[in-house]
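Worked problem 6 (solution included).
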Amino acid sequence: MDVFLMIRRKKLTIFTDAKDATTVLELKKMIEGIIKVAPEDQQLFNKDNVEMVDHQALLDYGLTASSAKAQSPAQIGLAVRGEDGSFEQLDMTPYSAPPDLPDVMKSQEANGAELPS
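Solution. The predicted structure is:
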């Protein structure tokens, strides 16, 4: 079954899918094809910010088709090795929040009908 993933590092977000039996190393190789960073220079972190081990499958981290759907992908953190040989701190820049709705729009229901007065 397909597992949908959102891999985040600083302001970079990668959306991809894989099988639940895919190993972490195989996922790192997919990422290498996108950002041109070797698998040994990558660290992946699950939702609990625990480093994922190369030989483990995504399934071992609870990433299944029922928990990581296309409309709500599982988030994985990515850190890369710097030029000094050490890994950077895990940093996932928060997304910006949309501005508040104008007062005119707040009085309407989501389906477009006006609320009774």
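Discussion: The mean pLDDT is 89.
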